[in-house]
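User: I'm putting together a small comparison set for a docking exercise, and I want a reference complex before I start. The sequence is below, and the ligand is pyridoxal-5'-phosphate. Could you produce the 3D structure with the ligand included, as structure tokens?
Assistant: Of course. I'll restate your input first, then give the structure tokens for the complex.
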Amino acid sequence: MSLIDLIKPHIRELAPYEPGKPMEELERELGIRESIKLASNENPLGASPMAVEAMRNALNEVNRYPDGASFALRAALSARLGVDENQLVFGCGGDEILELIAKTVIGPGDEVVYPWPSFAMYPIVIRGMGAKGVPVPLNREFVHDLDAMADAVTEKTRLVMLCNPNNPTGTSVGAEAFERFVAALPADVILAVDEAYFEFVRRPDFPDAIALLSDRPGTLVLRTFSKIYGLAGIRIGYGICDAEFASYLERARHPFNVNRLAEVAALAALDDEEHVRHTLEVNGAGIEYLTDELGKMGIETWPTDANFILARTGEGVFDALLRKGVLGQPEPLHGSNDHTLS
Ligand SMILES: Cc1ncc(COP(=O)(O)O)c(C=O)c1O
């Protein structure tokens, strides 16, 4: 008997997560300074100053456990979103919400339909529960192929993931297509709509996934404080769903999964209208600039509703940018060598 025999087969098979090198290390290796990291779609303007101030004020209280119910944040967010307080589940980043869904609804023998390329965590959480992932390629415009996704649902499907807007393409699906897709989904399949980039959306016909919750209780909408509020490093995200569904997710989480500083930071960030306004302004201007300037260079880009943009750069551009201190995210899409820039 060796150690590996004691490890669950589906955990053995997982490729270990390989964190990127810290930027300081890359800078040292490449002999550059003031590099620009675009690869994780963070907020380049920094964290909400109001959130930073709130964390500073809470530093002396870290001897106390966090509020396991996130009482104040829950009240503020439920008022903001127009949902009941018991329809919210908080997690250590949106990543943990994904894990809670997986832990709660899937296991060996189950299938999960998800778009691909999309957020890298989907196949990891699916395989981590011993379930089978069924990736469905994006269509030629790099948008979710909703018909193909609906067709991929079988009697074994327990969960369908949608990433809207999609990471890494920035593309999104509109209300009409979304509603048609939802109507085609069997009621006994959980639908998780990952809206990590919701606050950046520009298209006017973006679907109102929260409005779906009353008709379709097996639905969850995922959001995060990591992107627009610039709080990626403190780790807080949340799910919005039917109250009964939330009660099961609550059973699956550990009591202090959201730390004390994250709770106060998120609460303060919600009121930081200036930081949100500035972030949206800079992001919008950046998208216009990159679309225009890359277009002038003959480089194709795709419409984006997020804080990054997909560009067809061809080979070698990722490395050339890296040498100049700009870290993008290479994406081999449909066999071509594309490249996303946030
Ligand atoms: C589509 C998508 N979902 C979820 C997340 C998770 O975000 P976090 O765990 O930082 O809240 C990310 C982060 O990049 C993302 O791109």
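The chain is about 35% helix and 15% strand. Residues 41, 93-95, 119, 163, 167, 194, 196, 224, 226, 232, 237 surround pyridoxal-5'-phosphate (CB under 6 Å).
User: Thanks, that's exactly what I needed.
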